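Fold it.
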Amino acid sequence: MRFMSAATAAALITASLIVTGSIAQAQKASDLVIETGNGVRHALMVPGGKGPRPTVIVLHGTFGSGAGAAAATGFAEAATRHGFTAVFPDGLARQWHAGKTAEPNSPDDIAFMHALVALLIADRAADPHRIYLAGISNGGMMSFALACKEADLYAGIGTIIANMPADIEPCRPKPIPVVMVNGTADPVIPFAGGEIGRTSGRGKVWSVDQTVALFARVDGCRSSKSAALPHRSGAEDTHVTRIDWSNCQAGTSVTLFRVEGGGHAQPGRHARAAHALGPGNQDFIAADAIMDVFANDARQQHVMDVRSGTR
């Protein structure tokens, strides 16, 4: 299998941003180099403008890469439209190792992410109060682990086809905006929880209901409402229910996009290997939905900072 290089991804991203008119001036993606206890590691950064910016860090899935996620998930374009810097780090061996869920002697990815955030802040690329996490599949599980273990670093998380790792305890998240996107027929990350994938030994995850209930409780949400999204594509026999928790603590929110009949696929993107991983959905674009929530939170944070005199 061939993988996309950082240079190729950077060229594709820049071209895409110019063609789509997402920004007036396309800015070239750059390679970040981070020294860690596991050696030199890399992340691809697409700047959202000058000075510290609201920033989203996007974690790829198993067998993926930062460059591949930057070029293929839609987060680079969505982030740029909102004036966010987007960062796409590489997991070692093309996967993420989430604390206790990791095998013995596996890379310390929580320490790596801590170092990456510190570098972004030190280089004045990221606003330290507005750093968000988005993750797909294994990257989403890593995002949940970081929300549990490094809660003070992140202002919100968004996950696609991922649940909380089952052995994450203790988990001490802080109240933040949370967006989840899950398919009810996902054969890899089961909606009802349990073993990951079709074979044992890859670990277990909580159910979607248990995962979302944790964050609704932490955010102090007292009620929820659901609504069906308009069905825009007849090519796939799936539809989407959006569930929003309300009456939450100020500055927080919890949203679940439940893809009824959906498989292990990112909504709004082409579903790969649908015969094995299940159908996708084109009724909404997951990256856009997550970035909309992050952008709204970042605006509110900015207003509060101005009013309090911290800006």
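The longest strand covers residues 126-136.
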